[in-house]
Amino acid sequence: MEYLDFELPIKELEEQLDKCTIIGEESDVDVTETCKQIEKKLDDTRKEIYKNLTAWQRVQLSRHPNRPYTLDYINAICGGTFLELHGDRNVKDDKAMLGGLGKIGDQSYMFIGQQKGYNTKTRQYRNFGMANPEGYRKALRLMKSAEKFQVPVVCLIDTPGAYPGIEAEERGQGEAIARNILEMTRLKVPIIVVIIGEGASGGALGIGVGDKVLMLENTWYSVISPESCSSILWRSWEYKERAAEALKLTATDMKKLKLIDEIVREPAGGAHSNREKTFEIVKNKIASHYEQLQKLSPKELVNQRMEKYAQMGVFNG
Asked: Are 111 and 82 in contact (CB under 8 A)?
């Protein structure tokens, strides 16, 4: 397990607990009481740290090296039923954007999401979770297939943004994202969006239009990353913490501004501290929201979705 700067008190207590357990196993000394005291202190410290996180600390948690990625969620949620589908039928198969069919219980879903890598090799392979235009066109192709066969769509967002390279612009990055936003507003099947990590700019919006948009507690959703915002406004990355506060990018801010529908609470210590519990929470949320959405006719779904997005940014003086 890797630790962030503000998690170091937790690391120290976990090391103390490990040492205490080893002493108990290797000697005849009864350390049960001592271990219980350390465990209690560890729980209290964890609660205290995660109760008072700043916006920048939540950004750091969303990028935690041990945090589960899209494929981790899909494999855990679908239990071996996931069938990945490839290619946009035009240019190539974008490895930063993945999608395919999977089941939760007896219900099939079309899962789509950005995938990051775990080490240098896989990060390059996945282009750091930054999709090219063909990634968004692949996502749209899968959504249209889901619509054709009346399968609900689940989008898992975790990207630092769409790939900004010149070749991506040449192949129509802006058009691909805009096309997805347009088509998603009028897709005739339920769309459930879950932000599981970083939700940056148009890269997130390209698969981010949904009937229900959920955000995990320690994620962020914004037009720009704090570092980029800091470099534009102050010509330096040093003000990233100040930028994070000003951007109002946390799940709490997003809910307050009515840009998302629900905040999904993570286990104490964040999603990376208890992956299995996080997967179970997300799985249950997807299933319960679909249960409500399936009661609506395609026309009602589209009308409600359009009305929801039309209300965003409306100011009544």
From this structure: yes
Cα torsion 169, 171, 173, 178: sign = positive
- Report d(CA 234, CA 243) in Å as an integer: 10
Measured between alpha carbons, how far is residue 273 from residues 97, 270, 293 in Å? 26, 6, 31
Could you tell me the pTM of the whole model?
0.92
Is residue 192 exposed (0-12), middle (13-18) or buried (19+ Cβ within 10 Å)?
A: buried
Give the tens place of pLDDT for each residue, 67-90: 999 999 999 999 889 999 999 999
Amino acid 20 reads: C
pLDDT in tens, 88-118: 999 999 999 999 999 999 999 999 999 999 9
Assess contact for 108 and 102: CB atoms under 8 A.
Answer: yes
Beta-bridge mates of residue 199: 159, 221
- Evaluate whether 173 touches 132 at the Cβ level (below 8 Å): yes
Classify each residue of 145-157 as buried b or exposed e, where b means 16 or more C-beta atoms within 10 Å of its C-beta: ebbeeebbbbbbb
Residue with tokens 């192709």: 141
Cα 138 to chain centroid distance, Å, stands at: 19
